[in-house]
Amino acid sequence: TGKLYLVPTPIGNLEDITIRAKKVLTNADYIAAEDTRTSGILLEKIGVHNRMISFHKYNSKERAPELIKLMQDGAVIAEISDAGMPVISDPGYILVQECIKHDIPVVPLPGPSAFATALIASGFDAQPFTYYGFLPRKASEQKPFFEQMNQARATSIFYEAPHRLVKTLKTMAQILPAERQIVAARELTKIHEEFIRGSVAELNDYFAQNAPRGEFVILVSPNTEAPKQLSWPELITLVDQLVAAG
Ligand code: SAM
């Protein structure tokens, strides 16, 4: 049988394509791309010429069995999204699941993803962290997420569209204490890369003056005061110790 390669592509800077990614994209029988137009431009720029099949969230249910059939017949498929890692807030998950179900090897390539790129420069502890992807759009539906981030001992990371950022920060300010530290990582790897760091109140003021433009990753610092949540193994060890101690 064939196999499925999961291939990350640049999140801005074209030089972030890896040598291996380029090789896999060139040698695959097909490239399954979220948007064949966007990817066509990228592939052209990095000098990859290959066949593309469209595979996105609206056709993935029908397309997945067709791609599985191709791989069962020996095809090697390289899956890419518009930018960054497939599956990370992008399509791909269904195809990975189907490959596993059908015993087709899945080979992930390491490479750029916006959340990890933002996290390592945030200055917040990366262990543990929670990645939320995109939050719901409605303030009422976002609030429970901010409650959770408020209590979390982990760094919280989410993606937000520029035209929604001001409203989302206002909603955050209703839940998180004003002094809680936030980082807005903007236009990573691009010319206008920028890290806007400050409290919830400061970021609200900043973006009220400077309308958000470009792509954003938002990070919320961990709440080091929050009560420590025991994991199941820790909890079981504790119960065992208490029982042993009578
Ligand atoms: N698969 C991608 C990844 O691995 O990061 C994420 C795709 S998601 C549809 C697109 C969102 O990722 C954007 O709205 C933005 O929040 C974030 N993003 C992508 N590229 C970025 C960049 N260069 N700088 C900041 N955020 C970025």
Automatic annotation (TrEMBL):
<keyword id="KW-0963">Cytoplasm</keyword>
<dbReference type="InterPro" id="IPR000878">
    <property type="entry name" value="4pyrrol_Mease"/>
</dbReference>
<comment type="similarity">
    <text>Belongs to the methyltransferase superfamily. RsmI family.</text>
</comment>
<keyword id="KW-0808">Transferase</keyword>
<dbReference type="GO" id="GO:0005737">
    <property type="term" value="C:cytoplasm"/>
</dbReference>
<dbReference type="InterPro" id="IPR008189">
    <property type="entry name" value="rRNA_ssu_MeTfrase_I"/>
</dbReference>
<dbReference type="InterPro" id="IPR035996">
    <property type="entry name" value="4pyrrol_Methylase_sf"/>
</dbReference>
<dbReference type="InterPro" id="IPR014777">
    <property type="entry name" value="4pyrrole_Mease_sub1"/>
</dbReference>
<keyword id="KW-0949">S-adenosyl-L-methionine</keyword>
<keyword id="KW-0698">rRNA processing</keyword>
<dbReference type="InterPro" id="IPR014776">
    <property type="entry name" value="4pyrrole_Mease_sub2"/>
</dbReference>
<protein>
    <recommendedName>
        <fullName>Ribosomal RNA small subunit methyltransferase I</fullName>
        <ecNumber>2.1.1.198</ecNumber>
    </recommendedName>
</protein>
<dbReference type="InterPro" id="IPR018063">
    <property type="entry name" value="SAM_MeTrfase_RsmI_CS"/>
</dbReference>
<dbReference type="GO" id="GO:0070677">
    <property type="term" value="F:rRNA (cytosine-2'-O-)-methyltransferase activity"/>
</dbReference>
<comment type="function">
    <text>Catalyzes the 2'-O-methylation of the ribose of cytidine 1402 (C1402) in 16S rRNA.</text>
</comment>
<keyword id="KW-0489">Methyltransferase</keyword>
<dbReference type="Pfam" id="PF00590">
    <property type="entry name" value="TP_methylase"/>
</dbReference>
<feature type="domain" description="Tetrapyrrole methylase">
    <location>
        <begin position="3"/>
        <end position="203"/>
    </location>
</feature>
